[in-house]
Amino acid sequence: MPAFEYLALNGGGKEERGILEADTARQVRQLLRNSSLTPLEINEVVQKQKKTDGARLFGGSLNSADLALMTRQLATLVGAGSPLEEALGTIVRQTERSSSRRIFSAIRSRVMEGHTLASSLGQFPSAFPSLYRATIGAGEQSGHLSQVLDRLADYTENRQLNQQKVSTAFAYPALLSLVAVGIVIALLKFVVPNVISVFDTFDGQLPTLTRMLIASSNFLERHGVTVLIALVIFVFFVRYLLKFPSWQARYHRLLLKLPLVGRLVRGINTEHFARTLSILASSGVPILDALKIAGGVVNNIPMRTAVEEATVKVREGMAINKALQQSGYFPPMVIYLIASGEGSGQLDQMLERAAIQQERETQSRVTKMVSLLEPLLILIMGGVVTLIVLAIMMPILNMPQFIHRS
């Protein structure tokens, strides 16, 4: 039964939007009239589909929070014995966001038409990543969909929680940096010019620090807008360059070489790779397909390329741990755990342990970086303000030497 998105007027003349399931648009209009609503616009959800080069491109996406919540709801309902179409219908009724309702209504319609859940999710690739679709497909084939949904719910919730921790950890240093730059600019542009105007009456050469402060203030006064425009252009230019794979690969390679950032980037990507491969392997996905999909969740291009090369070597008969070890990007502990899993036949469990270990190390590194960054920013801001104050006070303290006696 197809889903229709409607726009109607209620008895008070206010517009209402929603989604109804019916055989035809005429039946939707009749249902709306029976509910004392005046239909204005009726659109079938699947009519938003477009075809390009024989491939379907569907609109709609879900953020990490919505995906985690709805995966947990679906896992709970299916685990409780609810039929899949009823579980999807419950999610549609409980969802407040119209875009999410549209996506799950279309998925439910396709499931009721006889399509698998995995193929129905494939109509929205921007909302459901390849890991998600492949894992559910394996769960449907093996008959363990509820268990697979539970693992996916844990995975999506854990990933969203980690993203929140990282963003929250760096929020205060970012705000502190912004405030520090704003204070320095305000001092140089508004306070310093008024103070240094007193020095025009001084006879003799001002201290070097004072002259540097005056030059900085004059430069900001004359070219501040130009510098700001240049910085904006530079940022957009860098973002434009990073759209090209070659420049993006250079940037990612540079990140891996940075002292602190490199280890953080390797840890985050290794954790995503290990956890994804663990879920896929435990769900029954063939190991070569699992490696290919797990490589897709690695954001760093050199590390993703290393996984692709390792997949080729595994296809030729090499062990996974040896293939990954040759790249030099993955931590020795992860390689050791993968080797143990291959030797004992418990690869999925060892990969899960590797992911947990990398997650803990990453969180520890983030905590240390933030704990060092906050006092460092405070010291830098205090040092700059101190230099400004010294540059202003030095001529004043030595005023008898500089006052011009007429």
UniProtKB/TrEMBL annotation:
The keyword Transmembrane applies. The lineage of its organism: Bacteria, Pseudomonadati, Pseudomonadota, Gammaproteobacteria, Thiotrichales. Keywords: Cell inner membrane, Cell membrane, Membrane, Transmembrane, Transmembrane helix. Residues 71-193, 273-395 form the Type II secretion system protein GspF domain. It is a multi-pass membrane protein. InterPro entries: GspF/PilC, T2SS_GspF, T2SS_GspF_dom, T2SS_GspF_sf. The chain crosses the membrane at residues 169-192, 223-242, 376-397. GO terms for biological process: protein secretion by the type II secretion system. Coiled coil: none annotated. This is General secretion pathway protein F. One of its GO terms (cellular component) is type II protein secretion system complex. Belongs to the GSP F family. It comes from Thiothrix eikelboomii. The keyword Cell inner membrane applies. It is found in: Cell inner membrane. Pfam families: T2SSF (PF00482).
